[in-house]
Amino acid sequence: GDPPVPAAPGRAQVFAAVVDTFLEKLVTAGSYQRFANSYRCFYRLQPEMTRSIYDQFVSQLQTSIKEEIQDVKDEGNLDVLFNSLDKMVEEAKDHKEPAWRPSGIPEEDVRSAMVPYLLKHRSYLQKVLKEKEKENRKVAESVLAGRDRIAELQQLIQARKLAWQ
């Protein structure tokens, strides 16, 4: 058959790649050459020391930026959000029907959005109503049964009273 189509990279991977590219560009922009030119006097006196300071500075800068970005990802739960977005896009591919678009007539749009929800709600309320009516019938039946029992007992008491007299 056909060779498998490689899966498109997920949003989390794309984000990671963007961050890496940004860091590379940052390092390129702050090249050692520029750094050395900015501290020319110091560079002339201490070239090795200048290089070492630059390397430390760049690596600390990269680390702190990566940590900041990781904090943002953790706080915003970004990995989970990216994954669920990927999933939604994946699932949407299988939908054959066209996606909903506003018609430009607000009343129509509201109706098309609300009617299914209201119908669902109505059928739920009807179900609850039926259950309540059933419960009420049971309660009414047991009340009537109780009344009959009381009437029987009253007759029994009456009969005993008469028998005693």
TrEMBL record:
<dbReference type="GO" id="GO:0007059">
    <property type="term" value="P:chromosome segregation"/>
</dbReference>
<dbReference type="GO" id="GO:0000444">
    <property type="term" value="C:MIS12/MIND type complex"/>
</dbReference>
<dbReference type="GO" id="GO:0005634">
    <property type="term" value="C:nucleus"/>
</dbReference>
<keyword id="KW-0539">Nucleus</keyword>
<dbReference type="GO" id="GO:0051301">
    <property type="term" value="P:cell division"/>
</dbReference>
<keyword id="KW-0995">Kinetochore</keyword>
<dbReference type="Pfam" id="PF03980">
    <property type="entry name" value="Nnf1"/>
</dbReference>
<keyword id="KW-0131">Cell cycle</keyword>
<keyword id="KW-0137">Centromere</keyword>
<protein>
    <submittedName>
        <fullName>PMF1 factor</fullName>
    </submittedName>
</protein>
<keyword id="KW-0498">Mitosis</keyword>
<keyword id="KW-0158">Chromosome</keyword>
<dbReference type="InterPro" id="IPR007128">
    <property type="entry name" value="PMF1/Nnf1"/>
</dbReference>
<keyword id="KW-0132">Cell division</keyword>
